[in-house]
Design brief:
Layout: E1 2-3, H1 4-10, H2 16-24, E2 28-30, E3 33-34, E4 41-42, E5 48-50, E6 53-54, E7 63-68, H3 91-94, E8 99-100, E9 108-115, H4 118-125, E10 133-140, H5 145-153, E11 156-159, E12 162-165, E13 170-177, E14 182-189, H6 196-203, E15 208-216, E16 219-220, E17 229-231, H7 234-250
Parallel strand pairs: 9-15
Antiparallel strand pairs: 1-4, 2-3, 2-5, 5-6, 7-9, 7-17, 8-9, 10-14, 10-15, 11-12, 13-14, 15-16
Helix pairs in contact: 1-2
Bound molecules: uracil.
Residues 104-105, 108, 195-198, 211 line the site of uracil.
């Protein structure tokens, strides 16, 4: 028997603290009775519901890659009711209570990993993570070679009101469109600061028109149409974990 809030957290409903709040709000029933006291103990034999929907213990760890389309939020829920990536999942996948590994902006498309394994997520997106993320960014104007050099050396960007220096990264000029006066730049970063790519481009004087993430570690969009997802193979999961670990030892 374990405490209700711990059970809910183990089932992936939310953090233990957030589950306490959910219980206090009277949203959880055990065998049909609303339970609001924290000490209540339950087991997997109890019929537990949240907002009248059954809570199923999800013990399987799951790992997916999605080709996120533009104009979807990469969050589980949106209080304003906008479309989220969860709207793209079938019910038989939703039952695993997946969450995104990091974020892509509303108007960014491309590789987004999904999992229900919090340790995996922390390994790949925490401040100590050094997993490579590759982006293609179309900017207004004709980019010069020296600008690419500036990007690769790291620039000073604005992160939620604070000035932050980005780490050195790889950048390349993919192509120039003189007719439409724009350039396509590739950039490979290991960090994941808020709006990092757009802010890096802005810091050297370019406005982002479109942004897509084409790679996360070794995972690409190969075989995935926009909005589609596929489960990662064990080999792919192990390679992501292995790369994240070996990178953190290099530092
Ligand atoms: N950098 C950005 O600016 N936006 C993203 O969505 C991802 C990286």
């Amino acid at each position: 028997m374990i405490r209700l809030q711990k059970y809910l957290a183990m089932c992936g409903v939310d953090s233990r603290r957030a589950c306490e709040k959910i219980i206090q709000e009277g949203r959880v029933k055990v065998n049909g009775d609303v339970i609001i006291e924290m000490g209540h103990k339950v087991s997997s034999d109890d019929y537990i519901t949240l907002d009248d929907k059954e809570i199923v213990a999800v013990l399987d760890k799951k790992y997916y890659v999605m080709n996120k389309p533009r104009y979807y939020l990469s969050t589980v829920k949106d209080p304003k009711g906008r479309k989220t990536i969860m709207d793209l999942l079938d019910d038989d996948i939703k039952k695993y209570r997946l969450f995104p590994v990091g974020r892509l902006d509303y108007d960014t498309k491309g590789v987004l990993l999904l999992t229900n394994d919090g340790d995996f997520m922390n390994m790949l997106v925490g401040p100590r993570s050094h997993t490579e993320k590759e982006y293609l960014v179309r900017v207004k104007g004709i980019v010069r070679k020296e600008d690419i050099l500036k990007l690769s050396r790291g620039t000073i960007i604005n992160v939620q009101g604070e000035k932050v220096k980005t780490r050195p990264c790889k950048a390349y000029l993919d192509s120039i469109d003189r007719i439409n006066n724009s350039s396509l730049i590739g950039i490979i970063i290991e960090e994941g600061k808020y709006h990092q790519v757009k802010e890096m481009l802005k810091s050297i004087g370019y406005e982002t028109i479109r942004l897509s993430r084409i790679r996360f570690g070794r995972i690409t969009l190969e075989g995935l149409k926009e909005g589609e997802i596929r489960e990662l193979s064990i080999h792919e999961v192990k390679s992501l974990i292995g790369d994240a670990k070996s990178k953190s030892q290099e530092i």
